[in-house]
Design brief:
Shape: globular
Number of helices: 2
Number of strands: 5
Strand content: 15-25%
Strand order of the largest sheet: 1-4-3-2-5
Radius of gyration: 20 Å
Structural class: alpha+beta
């Protein structure tokens, strides 16, 4: 018989991961995923991985969260620039050759209103300065 897949995993944390000289708060890191949000919650004794449909669902069973960090781009460009936003280019420089590719390009503002991925790409392409190809 196949086991049901769970959207939540709880992992007890060993003492070596806890900072002995300070009180740890309950924190969550959130990133977009198809159909919702991927969430990692860390509190003094547990590491919890789950998926929620709406961000507000995160607080249904965890009203104690003191910090919630959501990975979303802010300060979007109005039109395409090679290498993306200045902050993205600078972050890539800081991360160096082994981790620079972990900084993903943010969409241009107009792409957020697109009806499809193809439309978003076309909007970005058409916003590029004339004579510049988007790589």
């Amino acid at each position: 018989m196949a086991k049901k897949r769970s959207t939540k995993a709880t992992i007890p944390l060993g003492e070596e991961l806890l900072a002995p000289t300070r009180v740890m708060t309950s924190v969550a890191g959130v990133d977009g995923t198809p159909g919702g949000w991927a969430v990692v919650i860390m509190d003094p004794k547990l590491l919890i991985v789950r998926k929620v449909i709406a961000l507000s669902d995160l607080f249904d069973d965890r009203p104690d969260l003191e910090i919630v960090a959501v990975d979303v781009p802010i300060g979007l460009l109005e039109r395409y620039e090679k290498g993306g936003r200045t902050c993205d280019r600078e972050a890539r420089k800081l991360l160096g050759k082994y981790r620079h590719s972990s900084v993903f390009p943010a969409p241009i503002r107009a792409a957020l209103m697109a009806k499809s991925w193809e439309d978003a790409c076309a909007l970005s392409r058409n916003s590029a300065p004339q004579g510049k190809a988007i790589q």
